[in-house]
Magnesium transporter MgtE (Caldalkalibacillus thermarum), 455 residues
Amino acid sequence: MVKLDERNKEEYTRSVIKALKAGNIEEFRHLFLELHPTDQVELFISFDKNQRQRVYEYLSPAEFAEIFQGLELEQQKEYIVELDQTFAIDMFNSMSADDLADFLGELPDIMAETYLNNMGLEDAQDIKHLLAYPPETAGAIMTTEFIALSTKEKASDVLKRLRQQAPDAETIYYLYVVNEEGKLVGVVSLRDLIVAQDEQLVEEIMSTRVVSVSVLDDQEEVANVIKKYDFLAVPVISKQGKLVGIVTVDDVMDVVEEETTEDIGEISAARGAVDLQLSSFSAAKKRAPWILMLAFLGLITAGVIGRFEETLETVALLAVFIPLIMDSAGNTGTQTLAVVVRSLALGTIDRVGVGKLLKRELGTGMMLGLICALVLVLAIPLLYDGNWVLGMVVAVSLFAALSVATVVGAAIPLVINKLRIDPAIASGPFITTLNDIIALFIYFSVATAFLHYIQ
C-alpha cells in the first residue's frame, strides 16, 4: 500500500490521471488501489465528472464502497446520482451497515426505501433495524457486523471461524460471548484466544466483567465510555440484555467531531450554520433567530443607558468607559462559559462539585477584577487630568462586574444542563450580552452614587 506525501503526491496523481485518461485499466487499478483508502478518497474528489465516470467503470462496486464510505455526507449525495442503480445497490451490499444507515437516513424516505427494496434481504433488514433507533443514540451509530461466541466453543474452533468470518466483521480484536438467549455474558480478546490452549473452552478464558452501553444511551455517553476505558469497541445491549451491536472507536471519533462542531455552533450562536457547504441564504436563515434575540437584548442594554441619562449628561466622560466595562465583563463571562461547558462534556464537574466550581469561578473573577482595577485606578488619573475619583469609580465597577460575570458564565450553563438541555446553548453572545447589561447597571449605579465627587 502506497501512502502519499507532499513530495510525491503531485507526480503520483499525474500518473493515475494519465492512466485514467488513456483508458489503461490495469495501470490505473494498480496505481489507484495501491493507495491508502484516505488518499484514494482525496484523489477521487479531485477528479472531474468524466474521470469519475471512468472510475465507476474500472472499479468493482465492492472496491468503490471503500471510497464512498470515506466521503462526507454532502459529497455522497452529490456522487450517488452519478451511479447506475445496479452498481449502487451492489456497492451498498458491500458497505458497513452503520455507514450505510447513516447515508440512507439522510435521503428522502422514498429514495431510501427504493434502495432497501433492491438490496439483499438480510442486509436491508439490518439497515432498517438501525434506522429505527432514535438519532444520536448508541443504536443509531452501532454496527451489527460483529462476531458473537458461545461459551462452549473451543479456542481452536473459534480461530478457524475467525479466518472465515473476520473479513465481514467490523472488528475482531474483541469478541463478545452470549448465552443461549443471546444475552451478553463475557468478552474475549484476540490475544486471549491466540495464547489459549486449543481445547480450552471460551467460558474458561473469557472475562465476565463486561462494560456495555444500552441502545438508547446518548452517543456522547458512548464516546465517554470508550474514552474512559480506552476501548477499541464497546458492546451495545437491548433492554433485555441481549447483544445487538457494537460501537467502534472510529465511529466515536466521528461522534466527537460532530458534537464538537455542534458545541462550537451553540457557543457562537451559529448552530447549524458552521458547514461551509451551506449557501448564504441558508446560513443567514439559521443565524437570524439568534441575531434577532440578541438585538432584542441589545434594546435592554440601551434601556439601561437611557435610565442613567441624567448621569451621562452630568458627566459625559463616563461614556468613554462604557466599551471597556462591557467588553471586559462579556469576555470574562465567555471564558467561564467555555470552561464550564467543557467540564460538563467531560463529566469533571461531578468530581469537583458545583459549589466548589462556583466558588472557584467567583474567586477567579474577583482576582481578575482586582488586577484590572489596580491598573485602571492608576492609569485613568494619569490620562484624565488627575481625576482620581473617576479612576476609582471605573475600577470598583470593573471589579464588581468581573466578579458577577464569572458567576453568571458558570451558573447559566449549569442550570440549563440541570434542565436536561445542551449547556452549549448558553451561547457566548448570549452570555456576553447578559453580562453587558449587568455590567452597565453596576457601572452607572456606582457612578451615580459618586456623581458629586466626579465633577
The chain has a mean pLDDT of 85.
